[in-house]
């Protein structure tokens, strides 16, 4: 098969991979929204890369040809002059691109020579010592820099701080701003004219949840050999007969992942790293204590070198960190000017989904392609980013930190600073008083209105909009937390390892996010309270109920948006929860089959026990002793037939503990332990620890092992139970959210209200039920997707609950699972047991 026909896939693609890549190519070409499901083990990542990059190079080549062909002369101009104009423009474009390719090729050749010699080679730039231990307190900043500047502006539309003429977001001087703008950094909230005019290559933004998942994708990119976007470039530069143009890829990450300043990167939390980084760049920080790796006039050449080296070969986050250390330049900032000339940018969820993060990085999605992998939990991720939860203890801590700050700088505060800080204290006291007054006897949880939290003394006289503007401009939270942190470092002694302990909890910044919600509560969000067992654990929480509006700007800016995952079913949820405002003709969906034959799967509901006890694990019946006993008896009968490893997923940690306790009291637990080694996931145990113990037990014991886990827990996503680790996956019940909690009631009511507004009164109940079913089955599909990870794998999937025989539930299973669902399933335990034994006999014999 020719390269173009197979989308330059490095291997001979499966039919389902070709189907996936064709659908992806067409979706991008037509500028649509795509929801793509391709089970784990079917080469989804490589298909995403090959399909999208083939389109990208094809489109660039087509645009180039059309731009040349569009050149026309005047009516009286001879054809040879028109042709000359076309050739001239063509040569200009080729020359411009050739210069960059030549520079990148030199870097590649240099690095290849280094690898061939198997030597580290000389450093690319004079190394700066990364960690000076001559003074353990060198990173402790003077507290004077945390004093507030005089604040005189109440104009919400402007940004004027009298003592700081630099960037109000980063605290940079005018000189540093000018240099960073010259280098192409997007440091300001509003792009400068020169940024907007700079050439921004058409590109793909590829996003996934974690850096480890992105690193796996980067490894796939290294396998792909694409033709040049403009073939003549390759002839000009390399004189290669293959006409292969190297892919220009860039990895973006957080400060925590890219920081090379040891005294900053060693801080435990991402928030602490972010705050310390900004403190070290503050205009008032003495020069000798500023971060030496941030771009400045001294390392301008190294920054440009970093940009070219970053694009010269495909590098992941770790590679960029090594490169930054070698060049003594900050990778977090130095990657920014390399975004525009890149063809594909990989980045984690928060950097794409948060508008403020995109603006801080200077990222524009306008007319580019956005691909979000592992998108099954995208809606939860968006809601999580915009959800704020604060405990009474945190309010008390914030007030204590603010008091400490005031004791130091009280005499320096005057005018508006004094007024607004007093207002912050009043707000803290008002919310604390409300939480303190809550009584569990009157309800352990409930819904709040913003006004409930704003009834404290003097709060009605506060202009919240002006106060929020003040907090943003003055950076009060950062200064308070920075000062308290420095004071604690000064006072504490070094621990045994010789490093200072990080003890400050950065709460005021977190609480400021809640203040923002109270100032402008969104109609798609709700406020809740929860009374804790201890009073200090009582919490207020803002929850986003509808993620569609916060994702809408991405959809409207990008040329095409692709959501992909191994288990995206049920897909209808994305239409109603993420794209309710789009015409259905703009959305493309594809659910691929698996590479395994249907005979490699045994899928069946288990509707009753061997003694005919019905299995319905609803909230009202699952706690019955008879139900838990029947479940244990049935599993005990099946375990001896199951080879190697078996994993059972329960609907919650609390129910798992309840069932295990019951089995232990009835003797069932001891009998199960004779059949297989049993391990159990808990909220306290680490994922790696449990997984390692389970793997060892499966491989070392002839009986195999039985792992008890939880749907939605750490073992139900991203874990590979392939081959002998997952010869059987059991799902106990349907993990519906508790319908009686305040949060779930609010979510359901909101979904119903939207449906009624759009389709009439009859649609409300249906929409609410669909929402509950879809949320439940997304979690189930993730759990059962842990098994069968490659084309030769095989497994059984047992669904313990009579409701799994219902059409509306089965319709929400992935297509490849439904294809193996046994006909007449649900005929009783005896039929399931017999079919399971026959399945294992065939597989073990084959």
From TrEMBL:
Its cofactor is [4Fe-4S] cluster. It catalyses: ATP + H2O = ADP + phosphate + H(+). One of its GO terms (biological process) is establishment of sister chromatid cohesion. Its EC number is 5.6.2.3. Residues 3-425 form the Helicase ATP-binding domain. The keyword Transcription does not apply. GO terms for cellular component: nucleus. PANTHER family: ATP-DEPENDENT DNA HELICASE DDX11-RELATED, DNA REPAIR DEAD HELICASE RAD3/XP-D SUBFAMILY MEMBER. This is ATP-dependent DNA helicase CHL1. The lineage of its organism: Eukaryota, Fungi, Dikarya, Ascomycota, Pezizomycotina.
């Amino acid at each position: 098969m020719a390269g173009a026909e197979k989308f330059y896939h490095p291997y001979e693609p499966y039919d389902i991979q070709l189907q996936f890549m064709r659908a992806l190519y067409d979706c991008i070409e037509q500028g649509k929204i795509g929801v793509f499901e391709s089970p784990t083990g079917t080469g989804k990542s490589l298909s995403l890369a090959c399909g999208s990059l083939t389109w990208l190079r094809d489109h660039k080549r087509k645009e180039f040809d059309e731009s040349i062909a569009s050149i026309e002369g005047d009516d009286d101009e001879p054809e040879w002059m028109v042709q000359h104009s076309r050739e001239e423009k063509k040569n200009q474009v080729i020359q411009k691109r050739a210069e960059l390719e030549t520079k990148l090729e030199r870097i590649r050749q240099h690095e290849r020579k280094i690898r061939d010699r198997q030597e580290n080679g000389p450093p690319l730039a004079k190394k700066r010592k990364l960690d000076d231990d001559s003074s353990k307190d060198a990173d402790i900043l003077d507290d004077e820099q945390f004093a507030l500047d005089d604040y005189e502006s109440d104009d919400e539309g402007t940004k004027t701080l009298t003592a700081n003429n630099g960037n109000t977001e980063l605290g940079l001087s005018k000189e540093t701003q000018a240099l960073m703008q010259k280098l192409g950094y997007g440091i300001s909230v509003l792009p400068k004219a020169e940024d907007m005019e700079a050439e921004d290559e058409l590109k793909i933004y590829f996003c996934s949840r974690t850096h480890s998942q992105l690193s796996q994708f980067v490894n796939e990119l290294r396998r792909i050999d694409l033709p040049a976007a403009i073939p003549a470039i390759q002839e000009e530069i390399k004189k290669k007969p293959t006409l292969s143009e190297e892919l220009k890829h860039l990895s973006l990450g957080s400060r925590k992942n890219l920081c090379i300043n040891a005294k900053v990167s060693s801080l435990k939390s991402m928030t602490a790293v972010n705050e310390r980084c900004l403190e070290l760049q503050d205009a008032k920080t003495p020069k000798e204590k500023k971060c030496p790796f941030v771009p400045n006039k001294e390392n301008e050449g190294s920054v440009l070198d970093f940009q070219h080296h970053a694009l010269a070969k495909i590098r992941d986050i770790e590679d960029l960190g090594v490169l930054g250390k070698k060049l003594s330049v900050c990778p977090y900032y130095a990657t920014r000017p390399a975004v525009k000339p890149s063809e594909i940018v990989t980045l984690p969820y928060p950097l794409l989904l948060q508008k403020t993060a995109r603006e801080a990085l200077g990222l524009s999605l306008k007319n580019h392609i956005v691909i979000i992998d592992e998108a099954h939990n995208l809606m939860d991720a968006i809601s999580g980013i915009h959800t704020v939860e604060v405990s009474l203890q945190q309010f008390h801590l914030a007030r204590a930190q603010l008091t400490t700050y005031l004791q130091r700088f009280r005499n320096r505060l005057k005018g508006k600073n004094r007024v607004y800080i007093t207002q912050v204290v009043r707000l803290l006291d008002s919310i604390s008083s409300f939480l303190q007054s809550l009584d569990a006897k009157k309800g352990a949880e409930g819904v709040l209105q913003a006004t409930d939290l704003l009834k404290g003394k003097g709060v009605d006289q506060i202009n919240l909009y002006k106060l929020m503007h003040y907090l943003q401009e003055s950076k009060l939270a950062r200064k308070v937390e920075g000062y308290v942190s420095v004071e604690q470092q000064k006072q504490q002694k070094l621990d045994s390892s010789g490093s200072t302990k990080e003890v400050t909890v950065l709460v005021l910044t977190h609480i400021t996010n809640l203040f923002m919600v109270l100032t402008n509560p969104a109609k798609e969000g709700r406020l809740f309270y929860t009374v804790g067992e201890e009073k200090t654990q009582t919490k207020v929480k803002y929850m986003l109920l509808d993620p569609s509006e916060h994702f809408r700007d991405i959809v409207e800016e990008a040329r095409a948006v692709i959501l992909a995952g191994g288990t995206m079913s049920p897909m209808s949820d994305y239409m109603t929860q993420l794209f309710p405002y789009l015409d259905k003709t703009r959305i493309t969906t594809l659910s691929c089959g698996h590479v395994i034959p249907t005979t490699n799967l045994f899928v069946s509901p288990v509707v009753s026990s061997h003694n005919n006890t019905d299995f319905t694990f609803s909230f009202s019946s699952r706690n019955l002793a008879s139900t838990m006993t029947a479940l244990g008896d049935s599993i005990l009968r099946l375990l001896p037939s199951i080879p190697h490893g078996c994993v059972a997923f329960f609907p919650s940690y609390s129910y798992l503990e309840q069932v295990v306790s019951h089995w232990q009291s009835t003797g069932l637990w001891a009998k199960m332990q004779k059949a297989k080694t049993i391990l159990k996931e808990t909220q306290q145990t680490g994922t790696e620890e449990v997984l390692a113990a389970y793997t060892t037990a499966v491989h070392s014991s002839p009986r195999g092992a039985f792992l008890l886990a939880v749907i939605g827990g750490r073992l139900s996503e991203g874990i590979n139970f392939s081959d002998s680790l997952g010869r059987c996956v059991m799902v106990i019940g349907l993990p519906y959210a508790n319908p009686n909690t305040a949060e779930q009631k609010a979510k359901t009511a909101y979904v119903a209200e939207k449906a009624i507004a759009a389709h009439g009164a009859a649609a409300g109940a249906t929409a609410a039920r669909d929402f509950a079913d879809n949320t439940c089955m997304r979690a189930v599909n993730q759990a059962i997707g842990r098994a069968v990870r490659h084309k030769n794998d095989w497994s059984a999937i047992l669904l313990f609950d009579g409701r799994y025989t219902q059409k509306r539930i089965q319709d929400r299973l992935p297509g490849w699972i439904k294809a193996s669902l046994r006909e007449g399933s649900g005929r009783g335990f005896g039929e399931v047991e017999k079919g399971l034994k026959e399945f294992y006999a065939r597989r073990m014999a084959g």
